[in-house]
Structure formats: structure tokens, C-alpha cells
Specification:
Length: 179
């Protein structure tokens, strides 16, 4: 998903991918690096590895959405895009794919700032050790949410009485075609 400002400049992105872990687990696919590479032995960086001690990683099977890779332009940080984009991303992914779980890795500093619930994850499991990956070496949590809980999270946001409608939209009347 790409978010643009009024001039068309990209100011936000959010990516998700569907995996089928039937006959395997999230843990097996992640530590082997098949989660990221078709041919890990050939494609991985020197010394790249994932070490996962999060117990839930071994329980995640079947159709699973790996969500994340969000980015917000510095000029647009602090404007609630990180509240809206994860909901749009989850809603789109769940409408498109019949997955039972959505998972992601969340860096320790991001988690410490309270982003897991803001991004709609209700399960936080430690830890994922990422070594020499494309995003560096860091400690992360395995965060997840079931399909049912993600749909509740989205519905609650949409029914929030604090949601506002641009009054300019209300003041305009749509012209009907063919009348």
C-alpha cells in the first residue's frame, strides 16, 4: 500500500505477504531464511541469521500473513499515519487472503514506544535475534494477531466516534450521470 500527499509524493508505504506454512512452521521458515529468500544459501548476506526463541513461532502454521516493512516520510511522522496504515494494510490483506494469523517482527525500540497495540498486535513474544540482516543486527519481538482479533481491531477503529469527516466532502453534492 502506498500513501501519497496532495502533490502525489509518496509519504507512506506498508507491505504484507501471504505465506502457506502447511506442513511446516513459521519458526522453520524463518530460521532457515526461506521466509526471505528462495535460495537462502546463495542469497543471504555473509553471517546473516535469525535466532528465534519466541515459543509462538513454532505454533504458527497454515496460511499466514507476514506484515510490516512500513515507512513514513519524516515530514509526515507524528501525524497518525502509523495508526491508520496498519489498519488499512490488515483490512486489505484479510479481504484478499483467507489467512488465520498476521505476524511481524517488531524491533525492541519500536515495541518499547508502545507500537504493538497501535499496530493491532495483541500477542508479543520474545525474542527474534536478527544478525547481519538487510536491516542490521537487532533484537525484535514476534508480534501476532489472529484473523478474528484483527477484524475486531479494524471494526473498532471504524466505529470510533472520534473519527472525523472532512466538512468539504459533506458540503459538496455529487452530480448524477445521465439525468
Amino acid at each position: 500500500i502506498v500513501g501519497r500527499d496532495a502533490t502525489g509524493r509518496i509519504v507512506a508505504t506498508h507491505a504484507a505477504r501471504l505465506y502457506d506454512f502447511t506442513g511446516t512452521t513459521f519458526y522453520d521458515e524463518a530460521v532457515s531464511l526461506r521466509l526471505f529468500y528462495k535460495d537462502p544459501e546463495r542469497m543471504r548476506r555473509p553471517g546473516e541469521a535469525l535466532e528465534i526463541t519466541a515459543p509462538s513461532a513454532r505454533k504458527i502454521t497454515g496460511l499466514t500473513i507476514f506484515s510490516g516493512a512500513a515507512w513514513y516520510h519524516p515530514d509526515f511522522r507524528g501525524r497518525s499515519l502509523s495508526t491508520i496504515m496498519p489498519r488499512i494494510g490488515k483490512a486489505y490483506a484479510l479481504a484478499r487472503w483467507p489467512a488465520s494469523t498476521i505476524v511481524s517482527f517488531m524491533a525492541e525500540d519500536i515495541h518499547a514506544r508502545g507500537f504493538a497495540p497501535r499496530f493491532g498486535y495483541d500477542t508479543v513474544d520474545w525474542e527474534v535475534g536478527m544478525k547481519n540482516t538487510r536491516v542490521g543486527t537487532l533484537r525484535a519481538a514476534l508480534v501476532s494477531v489472529s484473523r478474528e482479533r484483527a477484524l475486531e481491531y479494524i471494526a473498532n477503529f471504524l466505529s470510533d466516534s472520534r473519527a472525523e469527516v472532512d466538512t468539504g466532502v459533506l458540503d459538496r453534492g455529487a452530480q448524477q450521470v445521465g439525468r
